[in-house]
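Troubleshooting entry. Yesterday's outputs looked truncated, so today I'm pasting the complete records for two proteins to confirm everything comes through intact. If either block looks cut off, that's the bug. Protein one:
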Amino acid sequence: MPTSQNDFIALNQTEIESALLKLKPLKAPGIDLLPNEVVKEMFFANRVWFTKFFNVLLSNSKFPREWKIAIVTLIPKPNKDYSSASHYRPIAFCPLGENY
């Protein structure tokens, strides 16, 4: 298990493909406006490039600003004590059209 940025373990194509196949096709895109299907197509068009690109982002801890922006709303779970944070489900919304 990595303990610092220097201990980065790269993801392989199989791991990235597995994660991408779990993305739901009809979810709304984030502030980057890239639908899940476009991200999947980018991977399948050139798996080697996509894997290298994604690993460079991870290893350098550098991500597009748009990937870091979200408004989180807490939705209470049914029949729970609302005084505990663990009894809420966080839902992230990406603000479109905002100047961030």
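Protein two, checking that the full record survives here as well:
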Amino acid sequence: MRFLRFILIVSLIAIAGFYFMEKNDLTTEEAIENISPIVKEKKSLIESKTAPEKQPGIPLEGDLFQWIGKDSDELVQTLGEPIRKDVSAYDYTWWVYTDQENQYIQFGVLDGDIETVYAAGSGLEIAPASIGQAYDEMKEQFSFSKEVTYNNGFSSYTFRLNEDELKMRPLVKMSDDIFLQCYFDTFTEKLSSIRVLTSDILLKHRPYEIEYRGNLPDEPLLSDEDWAEVENGMEKQIFDLTNVLRSHYGKSELAWEENVSEVAFLHSKDMAENNYFSHYSKDGNGLKERLAVEDIFYLAAGENIAAQYPDAAAAMEGWLNSEGHREALLNDDYTHLGAGVYRFYYTQNFLSRP
């Protein structure tokens, strides 16, 4: 049996701290610190989670930007009811549409209006970009830059991207108040997913280093009950996005494993509460020992961890763009997955079963 190989990757990002990722096989985001007027990027209760039934393809056509500011009633009229509504840590609620195989879209709805959209998968009409589009082609189309500036009255904000961010998730200002984040698979240099968001949402997420004059939104301040809802939603998002990504790369679908999800959740919680980031707990126990406590049978197992990404979608893109994490995410041998999220700590546990 393979045992305990890990890769630790730490990448400095914008507003308020660090993103951390670590991957472990058996067979990373924000330490928040305010440096005014410069901020460096980010950086429970567990409910029963079951994979929803498969849904038909998403009948979405046209420009994603057209949805920003529109009423959620129009969304229902066009796409029908979402398969679920996941509370976010940033006031809005994700309305999730996915066929659990090829297509995934979530709309961030705040006070009845759409404030952000995230889309991944194949066969989606999401002009002006398309999943799988080459980086160089999009760079020429949008003129990616290391600095993107936004002004609001007497307040001004400059988002600064380093070389890695410019390659993996460049930011484009589409209008006075609307931005585009392009997430690229740096291994294939093709577009992996896309996010459209208003300036308010971008400032709440704080995904890049930012120099500003004025005020920044407060960090999320939620009750334990609120966090439990947010965490549960992000776990489901990680499961859905994992299978959509695996399908995109020609890999088999993973089944949800509830006991493994609980193991993953408890590890995320332990890291957050005891202020460490590792596959090994403070007592020295690793994934093998954590699975043994629950008497979980497997032929092979692997683990990805990340911390301080603003949400599940961002953490997934981080894993996809790290060689070790990508290896686990797209491993041909794995058959089951459990995901556990506590605050902004994320854990994926993979299993191989006959």
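Both blocks look complete. Sanity check on protein two: The chain has two domains: 61-213, 224-352.
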